Amino acid sequence: MRPVVDHEECIGCGQCEQICPEVFELREDGFAYVIKAPGEEFRAQVDEAIEECPTGAITWEE
Ligand code: SF4
């Protein structure tokens, strides 16, 4: 499982990066990117980022 950011939905607010900078990175193009597949230790933070994303742009995918 890894999180995926839908760039059709992302508005570049940076919330996900603030919550879990080990996994999400906001780039100059204004979109968040997943920079590494999170291990168990970041699972809760990724879940929080999913909940806090204002547009629901982040989902878990197999
Ligand atoms: Fe994009 Fe959501 Fe991350 Fe904001 S929290 S940068 S909208 S993916």
DSSP summary, beta strand count = 4
Q: What can be said about the biggest beta sheet?
A: 2 strands, antiparallel
Please name the CATH topology.
Alpha-Beta Plaits
Determine the number of helices (DSSP H or I, runs of at least 4 residues).
Answer: 2
> H/E order of the elements?
EHEEHE
Uncertain runs: none
What average pLDDT do the residues reach? 96
Helix coverage percent of residues? 10-25%
Strand content: 15-25%
CATH class membership: Alpha Beta
What is the 3D form? globular
Q: Which class of secondary structure composition applies to the elements?
A: alpha+beta
Task: State Rg.
Answer: 10 Å
Query: Which compounds are bound in this model?
Result: iron/sulfur cluster
Number of domains: 1
Shape-level CATH architecture: 2-Layer Sandwich
Quaternary state reads single chain
Domain 4Fe-4S ferredoxin-type: 1-29
Organism: Candidatus Aquicultor secundus
Function: Ferredoxins are iron-sulfur proteins that transfer electrons in a wide variety of metabolic reactions.
InterPro entries: 3Fe4S_ferredoxin (IPR001080), 4Fe4S_Fe-S-bd (IPR017896), 4Fe4S_Fe_S_CS (IPR017900), Fe-S_cluster_ET (IPR051269)
Structure description:
The protein is α+β, with helices and mostly antiparallel strands and 62 residues long. The protein has one domain: 2-Layer Sandwich (Alpha-Beta Plaits). The chain is 24% helix and 23% strand. It has two helices and four strands; from the N terminus they run βαββαβ. The strands form two sheets. It has a two-stranded antiparallel sheet. A hairpin with a 5-residue loop joins strand 2 and strand 3. The longest helix is centred in the last third of the chain and has 10 residues. It is globular and about 30 Å long. The chain starts with a strand and ends with a strand. 18% of the residues are buried. The model has no long low-confidence stretch (mean pLDDT 96). Bound molecules: iron/sulfur cluster (SF4). The site of iron/sulfur cluster has 15 residues, from helix 1. Iron/sulfur cluster binds next to helix 1.
